[in-house]
Amino acid sequence: MNRRDLLRSLAATIALPALAGRSTDSLFAVGRGVHRRARAGGFQVLDPHQRETVATIAEMIIPATDTPGARAAEVHRFIDLLLAEWAPDDDRKQFLEALGDVDARARAASATDFLTATEAQRAAILTALDAEAQAHPQGKTDAQPPFFQRMKFLTVYGYCTSEVGATAELHYEVIPGSFDGCAEPGRWHAAPGDF
To answer: CA 20 to 30 Å from 47, out of 54, 84, 108, 195?
Structure first.
């Protein structure tokens, strides 16, 4: 899947109204800009516990394998900046309340918060949230998507527009190799804008 197809499919499940209706190139540019700004600044919305919760959930969505995961891509910083500067106040409030609900679910299941729960307990909570998101009626534009659907979108969007995700996972080459005018078409590699 190339960058345009990925961002086009992400745009179909857009989680922030401010990003809705943007072209794939615009979505990519916004993502790269958010990453630059997030690396340069501090956290604005998420407190330390919420930061770690978001980072842990994102890492469970895109774990480190032979390529870096969401934590290495600093997706939690990306989400914090989007919440601070792109999300309307009520969306930000709903997102933070949903993070609190994740801890409440963990306490109900194991008498501990999400971060101190076992890996199996965390996975069970996220599986339940995903099932609820899948059962949510699709196509209603006036209703907010469920928290876990938004979290997955923001994680994938943040990961794929990060330097780590773009280079390690999507094999994006900022400056491709030398020009060879006689190269066979089958030897073509991704160029800027095509990952």
So the answer is: 108
